[in-house]
Design a protein that fits this description.
By secondary structure, this protein is α/β, with parallel strands linked by helices. Helices cover about 30% and strands about 25% of the residues. It has 6 helices and 14 strands. Strands 2-1-3-6-13-14 form a 6-stranded mixed sheet, sandwiched between helices. The radius of gyration is 17 Å and the shape is globular. The protein binds arabinose-5-phosphate. Arabinose-5-phosphate binds near residues 88 and 110.
C-alpha cells in the first residue's frame, strides 16, 4: 500500500469516528496522523452542524491543531470524565484489541485520557493490524529523566533490546510531561499482560505503551469504507 492509499484509509476511519460524536460530548482528541484526520473531520462537523462539544487533547500538538481549527477545548480541571476518545494506534492485536501506542510520544496523556473515557474508539489503517502485539513495533516506555540509565538497565532484564528515543540534533526526545522514552523491542508477545505487569513494577517507569483492555472498538479504514473490530 502506498502513502496515498494509506492516508485514504486513515481518513476513512477518521471520518467514520467523527460521525460518532454527539452534541454535548466531552471528546478526547488523540495524537498522530490518523488522529489529526479525525480532528479535522470533527472541526468540519462543528462548523457545518453547530455541534456543541468540548475536546481534551492528548498532546500539545493536537491541542494546537484543534485550537487552530476552532474546536473548543476543556481540561480535567473542569471535566474528569470524557464521553468518547478517538485516537490512533501503532499496532492493534486482532481479537483482543490490545494496542501498542506511543510512537508519537504521547502515550502518558493518551492513556490518562482513554482510561477516563466511557468509550475509546481507535482509528487505523490496515497496516496496523497484527496477529500478535510486537510483530512490527517496539513498546514505548516513558521514564523519568532522573536515573533513566538505571531504569534502562532494569528494562533490559525483561529481554529483547531497548534504546533511548532521540529527537532533534541527536538529543533525547522529551515528552509533553518532561520525561524520556525508551523503546523496548520484545518481538511478538505471547502474553502482553505479563510484560505490562513487569513494566508497571519497575521504579522509574512513568507509563508504557501497552494499552490492554482499553479500546472499546477499532475502526479500520478501507479503500471503500471501514471495518469495525470489537473485542
Ligand atoms: C501517539 O503517541 C501514538 O500513540 C499514535 O496514536 C500513533 O503513533 C499512531 O500514529 P499514526 O496515526 O500517525 O500512525
Amino acid at each position: 500500500m502506498n502513502q496515498v492509499e494509506q492516508n485514504a484509509e486513515k481518513k476513512a476511519a477518521a471520518d467514520a469516528a467523527a460521525k460518532l460524536v454527539e452534541t454535548g460530548m466531552i471528546v478526547g482528541l488523540g495524537t498522530g496522523s490518523t488522529a489529526a484526520f479525525f480532528i479535522e473531520a470533527l472541526a468540519a462537523r462543528i462548523a457545518r452542524e453547530n455541534l456543541q462539544i468540548k475536546g481534551i487533547p492528548t498532546s500539545e500538538r493536537s491541542g494546537e491543531l484543534a485550537k487552530s481549527l476552532g474546536i473548543p477545548l476543556t481540561s480535567f480541571a473542569e471535566n474528569v470524565r470524557l464521553d468518547l476518545t478517538v485516537d490512533g494506534a501503532d499496532e492493534v492485536e486482532k481479537g483482543t484489541l490490545f494496542l501498542i501506542k506511543g510512537h508519537g510520544g504521547a502515550l502518558l496523556r493518551e492513556k490518562i485520557v482513554a482510561t477516563s473515557s466511557a468509550r475509546m474508539v481507535v482509528i487505523a489503517d490496515e497496516t496496523k493490524v497484527v496477529e500478535r502485539l510486537g510483530t512490527h513495533e517496539s513498546v514505548p516506555v516513558e521514564v523519568t529523566q532522573f536515573g533513566w540509565q538505571s531504569t534502562h538497565m532494569k528494562l533490559g532484564k525483561l529481554g529483547g533490546t531497548s534504546s533511548l528515543r532521540l529527537g532533534n540534533a541527536g538529543k533525547p526526545y522529551v515528552t509533553d510531561g518532561g520525561n524520556y522514552i525508551i523503546d523496548c523491542n520484545f518481538g511478538p508477545m505471547g502474553n502482553p499482560k505479563n510484560f505490562a505487569e513487569q513494566l508497571d513494577s519497575i521504579v522509574g517507569v512513568v507509563e508504557h505503551g501497552l494499552f490492554l483492555g482499553i479500546a472499546s472498538e477499532v475502526l479500520i479504514g478501507k479503500q471503500n469504507g471501514t471495518t469495525v473490530l470489537k473485542p
